[in-house]
């Protein structure tokens, strides 16, 4: 059976998912699209032979759509996620689940009313082979208890529309989710250090910055976020345990052959670095949904990440430590 997918907001990320689904993965096909830009929606629909829906509500309600992928702008997510959940359709939502913790709570409430997990959030690093290996080492107990995690998240450039808070809630959100998933703990506090700024940035940005988070059991995590390094999409991570350390290997590099011979080139964007992770994430989502099951991160993960982002953004504007404010985890997500 080919699962019929409706996609809301087929921009850069959405189109990359369409290419993966149609060219690489089996089991699903994007049969309907909608976008705030009707001409864009018509263009994409024409390219892939899909139906255009005038609104996201129409797409979600369509009998031709079994499952929904939301790749639109974050502030538009909540209404569509809730509508898909209320229609009983599994929904894959790109991060952030919603920009505010309050909206994530509304999504969790709708999902609990529906009585089953229907929402998966696009935190693709959970499907990356290098992160999976790192987690396997930690879980084996070989390096003892985790004490510190060092993360580096570097981009070559960001566009001018990238606002000052996005360093945390658009870029750092991936590190936040990865560390929660890896360590199996929530964060309790955040602070931000602001190094000398690169001259190669838009004036409204603090770039780079260092986000320092502490977990419930006292593990410290530092994240260097540097989004204008001018040369590479460079993701690094190192976990320090009581008796050993483990770090992501050179899987962030690709091997190239050219005039200088065989060499490693650094990846340039998230689709290159995390191509395999995206494919596994979407492939597993389609196959789980077709079995009536859930995979990947939940609405709770989207909520928890939003709460840590809120604390981080606050810490970026005020000196000192900011506590992460979270509700108790509903039993539904245990
Ligand atoms: C972008 O939205 C992503 O999700 C990328 O993974 C991240 O590296 C980039 O900084 C974000 O803007």
SSE blueprint:
Blueprint: E1 3-8, H1 12-23, E2 28-34, H2 38-48, E3 51-52, H3 56-61, E4 67-70, H4 77-86, E5 91-94, H5 101-114, E6 119-122, H6 129-140, E7 146-154, H7 166-183, E8 187-193, E9 209-215, E10 220-226, E11 234-241, E12 245-247, E13 253-258, E14 261-266, H8 270-273, H9 275-290, H10 299-317, E15 322-323
Parallel strand pairs: 1-2, 1-4, 2-3, 4-5, 5-6, 7-10
Antiparallel strand pairs: 7-11, 8-9, 8-15, 9-10, 11-12, 13-14
Helix pairs in contact: 4-5, 5-10, 7-10
Bound molecules: (2R,3S,4s,5R,6S)-2,3,4,5,6-pentahydroxycyclohexanone (ISE).
Structural write-up:
There is one protein chain. This protein has two domains: 3-123 and 276-298, 3-Layer(aba) Sandwich (Rossmann fold), CATH 3.40.50.720; 126-268 and 305-333, 2-Layer Sandwich (Dihydrodipicolinate Reductase, domain 2), CATH 3.30.360. The chain starts with a strand and ends in an 11-residue tail after the last strand. A seven-stranded mixed beta sheet has the order 12-11-7-10-9-8-15, covered by helices on one side. The protein is of the alpha/beta class. Helix 5 (101-114) runs antiparallel to helix 10 and helix 7 packs across helix 10. Helices cover 37% and strands 25% of the residues. It has helices at residues 12-23, 38-48, 56-61, 77-86, 101-114, 129-140, 166-183, 270-273, 275-290, 299-317; strands at residues 3-8, 28-34, 51-52, 67-70, 91-94, 119-122, 146-154, 187-193, 209-215, 220-226, 234-241, 245-247, 253-258, 261-266, 322-323. The relative contact order is 0.16. The mean pLDDT is 95. It has ten helices and 15 strands.
